[in-house]
UniProtKB/TrEMBL annotation, chain A:
The protein's name: MBOAT family O-acyltransferase
InterPro entries (alphabetical): Ac/AlaTfrase_AlgI/DltB, AlgI, MB_O-acyltransferase, MBOAT_fam
Signal peptide: none
Species assigned in the record: Rufibacter roseus
Membrane topology: Multi-pass membrane protein
Keywords: Acyltransferase, Cell membrane, Membrane, Transferase, Transmembrane, Transmembrane helix
Main location: membrane
Short name of one Pfam family: MBOAT
Stated family: Belongs to the membrane-bound acyltransferase family.
Annotated TM spans: 6-22, 27-44, 50-67, 79-99, 119-140, 310-326, 370-388, 408-435, 456-479
Superkingdom: Bacteria
UniProt subcellular location: Cell membrane
Automatic annotation (TrEMBL), chain B:
Provenance organism: Rufibacter roseus
Name this polypeptide is given: DUF1574 domain-containing protein
Length: 481, 322
């Protein structure tokens, strides 16, 4: 079920009313309703995927209990490995089987020992990377004794399958989300209103900005050879905004929806395109994944404690694994590698934590230096997105070659009728984000600044923009991961 | 919670109250468009107003509305004629137009059915979707024929305004029509509009992309076409098959062209219909009459309508009134 669909528009109010008016007497019933709604939400794509998520839930619930009852360090470690192997095994099979098979076959063929291997027709379950990492966080935190294992299976099922963030995050830590399923929930008016605002803002980002940018970006990425360098640059920039608004829009809707049910989800994006260097970008982009890798991979590998060379190795590992997490394609690995390379000079010069605050905090406009840094960082990120969006490596190379060809100054080849309204939408969007960059989302705490009639005008304008300017509906990009 | 639901209701109430009036506003103004929607709106408007009352109607695709001039036919036949040719669609949607026509207008005496190799093909896409927007609310026929394409959802046919979601150009045209005087440019006259153009490169481009084309008549659509012919006979509507000129050089592009023509000949024989085939006519031999392989330009369409008129007078003398 897509957030930007009629199905969801009917589903959400029904679940909301049942949750607060029918099952409100007991946490258990509320959690059970969340499980039922989440399984319906997930099964809407393909009911067969439900067995997989149930199996994953069962394994981690069981291992969590076993870890709680086990004091022997060796056995605890063995239990942890069972969970890791089962979860990553499922992920590996559904997501990476064909990728590794093809690469093994190619490698052996190159070595003069051709082997055969038949690719399987495997359907990738929606959001498998998200819920796998979420359940893994539970087992690891229980193993680390940061969290007591839960005995409440319904709560645990609700934690794994919580529909607002099930298929595209934010990837929640068990230490943050699971305890919320054990606490009584009271309807909070301000929180619910803010949740609605965040849903409205997320929906406008997805439907108005992302889906319209997609139409342009799809043209340049699907017909790369037909366009001049200037158009390819613009296409890459539009893709940068497509993926940002698509994914952060989804996160906003997820966070807002969760708030309607009395849950607090972690922030996933913090205006990443206003970053002054790549290190800052990664503190602001897909925060739930970056911090997951930091907590469960980078720090266990030694983090920054083991000297420069070890630190460099760890940085490369997390960026490459992060690339691979996104998809079974060399383009994602190169995308991760490229960001590791962007990160390297900052690490060597010990400037990777130079920009931790918000840009231009004390003034409305950025300084010339900050503006240059923002544009330069954005340019580097856009180049990375070319690998991310390309079908394969040769396509990425073709696209980049086109971008840097002599036609870089040629007139844009896509009709002004499409390009100009899109540029106008982006200009409005960037301005709004810039003016509200100190907030969690642009519509947060609107009542502090605007009176009711003005607030209503803003809501209606956004609703009208969603209605009229809606682009060709596109699936959320991150569903494929 | 009460406060939340109350405020949410206050926010949604104006939307619900205004949805239907806004729908009427958009639909009524969109209907005035000429350039937008391939100028199909004028035909729908004439049809739904119930004032068409034509004795002779022309059915078919773009080859119908660009080839058969109703004014010339009216002058020669002394009967009212209207061209209901539907751009870019095959019998699949041409039949919808037939049903809608009969719902709002008296039945015609004659149907000149303009055929082409694609007439009985089933098209996967709903071409020119915007043409249905102003007329589809609560319209069962339009719902039944267009819903299977998947472009509209079931609720689009029943909830006001919903179908305009994301149709920014349609909304823009409707608003434009409401605030500035409606486009006075020549649109379709009695459903017909000639194209005053010279030969373009469409054919050469198509040939570059495709070596040849094979038209595949859809069995269900063919069956429906037979039913349509039977129903017309039952209602005393005489159908005449017309295969208007196609540029001779392009005819070999369709690999099974002869097979399709034979299908039409058999149908005509089975239903005892007159079949006028102009694909080998002298007009088909001259490039100057075409702007692409399948479409005649203004000069060509006038020459062809006159030829057709003479043939109708000769072969169907009762059709031409004194």
């Amino acid at each position: 079920m897509l957030f930007n669909s009629i199905d969801f528009a009917l589903f959400l109010p029904i679940v909301f009313l049942l949750y607060w008016f029918v099952t409100n007497k007991s946490i258990w019933w509320q959690n059970l309703l969340i499980v039922g709604a989440s399984y319906l939400f997930y099964g809407w794509w393909d009911w067969r995927f439900l067995f997989l998520i149930f199996f994953s839930t069962l394994v981690d619930y069981g291992i969590g209990l076993a870890l709680g009852n086990e004091a022997h360090a060796g056995k605890r470690k063995a239990l942890l490995w069972v969970s890791v192997l089962v979860n990553l095994g499922l992920l590996g099979f559904f997501k990476y089987y064909n990728f590794f098979l093809e690469n093994f076959v190619s490698a052996f063929t190159l070595l003069g020992r051709p082997i055969s291997g038949d690719a399987l027709h495997i359907v990738l379950p929606v959001g498998i990377s998200f819920y796998t990492f979420q359940t893994l966080s539970y087992t690891i935190d229980v193993y680390r004794k940061k969290l007591a294992p839960t005995k409440d299976f319904v709560s645990f099922m609700a934690f794994v399958s919580f529909f607002p963030q099930l298929v595209a995050g934010p990837i929640e830590r068990a230490t943050h989300l699971l305890p919320q399923f054990h606490q009584p929930r009271k309807f909070q008016y301000r929180s619910a209103v803010d949740g609605m605002r965040q849903i409205l803002w997320g929906l406008s980002k997805k439907v108005v900005v992302a889906d319209n940018c997609a139409e342009f970006a799809n043209l340049t990425f699907n017909h790369t050879s037909d366009y001049a360098g200037s158009t390819l640059w613009l296409g890459a920039v539009f893709f940068a905004f497509q993926i940002y608004c698509d994914f952060s829009g989804y996160s906003d809707i997820a966070i807002g929806t969760a708030r309607l049910f009395g849950f607090d989800l972690m922030r996933n994006f913090a205006f990443p395109y206003f970053s002054r260097d790549v290190a800052e970008f990664w503190r602001r982009w897909h925060i739930s994944l970056s911090t997951w890798f930091r907590d469960y991979l980078y720090i266990p590998l030694g983090g920054s404690r083991g000297g420069t060379m070890l630190n460099i190795r760890n940085i490369f590992i997390i960026f490459i694994v992060s690339g691979l997490w996104h998809g079974a394609n060399w383009t994602f690995i190169v995308w991760g590698l490229l960001h590791a390379l962007y990160f390297l000079p900052l690490l060597l010069l010990k400037r990777n934590r130079q920009h931790v605050g918000t840009v231009a905090e004390a003034s409305f406009f950025p300084s010339a230096k900050e503006a240059t840094q923002i544009i330069f960082t954005f340019g580097l990120v856009v180049l990375g997105w070319v690998f991310f969006r390309a079908h394969d490596m040769s396509h990425a190379v073709q696209y980049l070659t086109g971008m840097f060809s002599s036609s870089i100054l040629a007139p844009i080849e896509i009709e002004a009728q499409i390009t100009l309204p899109l540029l106008l939408i982006l200009a409005v969007f960037i301005s709004v984000e810039w003016c509200t960059k100190h907030k969690l989302h642009p519509l947060e705490k609107l009542e502090q600044k605007w009176k009711r009639p003005m607030r209503l005008t803003i809501y209606y304008m956004l609703a009208a923009a969603i209605f009229v300017l809606e682009g060709q509906p596109q699936a959320f990009i991150y569903f494929q991961f | 919670m009460k406060r939340f639901l109350k405020n949410l209701s206050y926010f949604l109430l104006p939307v619900l109250v205004l949805a239907y009036p806004l729908d009427i506003f958009l639909s009524n103004n969109l209907k005035k468009s000429k350039a937008y929607g391939q100028d199909e709106y004028s035909v729908y408007n004439d049809m739904y107003s119930g004032n068409l009352r034509a004795e002779v109607v022309v059915y078919g695709s773009s080859r119908a509305w660009t080839h058969l001039n109703p004014i010339l036919l009216e002058k020669g036949l002394h009967r009212s004629v209207y061209n209901l040719g539907l751009d870019g669609h095959t019998f699949q949607l041409q039949y919808l137009r037939h049903l809608e026509y009969l719902k709002y207008n008296p039945k015609p005496r004659y149907i000149l059915y303009s055929l082409d190799v694609f007439t009985l093909e089933r098209l996967p896409d709903l071409y020119n979707v915007q043409q249905f927007l102003p007329y589809m609310l609560y319209n069962e026929n339009i719902k039944n024929f267009t819903l299977p394409y998947g472009h509209f959802s079931f609720l689009d046919y029943y909830l006001p305004l919903l179908r305009y979601s994301g149709k920014k150009w349609a909304v823009l045209h409707a608003v434009k029509n409401a605030v500035v005087p409606v486009d006075q440019s020549a649109g379709r006259v009695k459903g017909y509009r000639a194209k005053d153009e010279t030969w373009n490169g469409d054919f050469e481009k198509a040939q570059e992309k495709l070596q040849y084309y094979k038209a595949i008549p859809d069995p269900e659509l063919t069956k429906l076409f037979h039913q349509f012919l039977q129903n017309c006979a039952r209602q005393n509507i005489e159908v005449i098959f017309v295969y208007s000129p196609e540029y001779i050089e392009g005819q070999k592009f369709v690999q099974n062209r002869e097979e399709i023509l034979q299908l039409y000949r058999n149908m005509a024989a089975q239903h005892r219909l007159l079949f006028l085939d102009y694909s080998q006519d002298k007009i088909s031999q001259e490039k100057k009459f075409f702007y692409n392989v399948t479409h005649l330009n203004k000069t060509g369409s006038e020459a062809f309508t006159n030829t057709l008129l003479q043939d109708l007078k000769r072969l169907k003398p009762a059709m031409a009134l004194p």
